[in-house]
């Protein structure tokens, strides 16, 4: 369904992109550090879920329509920033008594999954990335339509991204294991995540979102 002659170039570009630190990497790494590997895995799955949805929107041409609308992009940016600020505020308001016991840390998994999905979907830069990146590797030599090629390329991107994030979770989760047994850290772990959400909100709200020429 795709032109396999461009596959080496595409895979090289994907690997290079995965190695560049970004908000997704920060959220997944901090989740793993604060709550353990299981929560990090669910945050990675949340990121992959949003990636699949963005791939479908790009393949259907919906994301291109949004990407050329400056008002829609600004609304997305403001909603995304407001959501991250709310998550940060909720974490900061958490008292030590609300901190789960060590054996209950996995209860945060579903929460971080949802947060990863929503924060990425409300990030206009993620949407624009799929609009600008995938079409570069659509080939006229392939028998599939451009939408079908973008779907396959996007699925490949998401699979590689998930594998990379799971590797990151394993590494960071191992490093953070002693912290999860530290009473002082566990008392403040929600506040640490609150700080991460505030950083992500500022990152998103302060960034300039270009309108691509489609």
Automatic annotation (TrEMBL):
The keyword Membrane applies. It is a multi-pass membrane protein. It comes from the Bacteria. The keyword Membrane applies. The chain crosses the membrane at residues 6-27, 126-144, 150-172, 192-209. Its main location: membrane. GO terms for cellular component: plasma membrane. GO terms for molecular function: amino acid transmembrane transporter activity. It is found in: Cell membrane. Pfam families: LysE. InterPro entries: LeuE-type (IPR001123). Keywords: Cell membrane, Membrane, Transmembrane, Transmembrane helix. This is Lysine transporter LysE. It comes from Photobacterium lipolyticum. The lineage of its organism: Bacteria, Pseudomonadati, Pseudomonadota, Gammaproteobacteria, Vibrionales.
């Amino acid at each position: 369904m795709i032109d396999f002659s461009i596959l080496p170039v595409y895979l090289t570009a994907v690997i290079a992109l995965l190695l560049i630190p970004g908000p997704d990497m920060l959220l997944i790494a901090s989740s793993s550090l604060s709550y353990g590997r299981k929560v990090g895995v669910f945050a990675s799955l949340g990121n992959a879920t949003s990636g699949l949805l963005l791939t479908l929107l790009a393949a259907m041409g919906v994301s291109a329509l949004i990407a050329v609308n400056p008002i829609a992009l600004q609304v997305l940016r403001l909603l995304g920033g407001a959501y991250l600020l709310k998550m940060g505020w909720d974490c900061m308001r958490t008292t030590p008594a609300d901190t789960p016991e060590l054996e209950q840390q996995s209860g945060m998994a579903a929460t971080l999954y949802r947060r990863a999905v929503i924060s990425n979907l409300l990030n206009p830069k993620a949407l624009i990335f799929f609009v600008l990146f995938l079409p570069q590797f659509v080939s006229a030599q392939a028998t599939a339509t451009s939408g079908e090629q973008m779907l396959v390329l996007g699925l490949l991107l998401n699979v590689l991204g998930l594998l990379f994030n799971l590797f990151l979770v394993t590494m960071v989760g191992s490093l953070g294991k002693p912290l999860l047994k530290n009473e002082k850290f566990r008392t403040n772990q929600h506040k640490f995540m609150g700080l991460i959400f505030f950083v992500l909100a500022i990152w998103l709200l302060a960034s300039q979102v270009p309108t691509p020429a489609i």
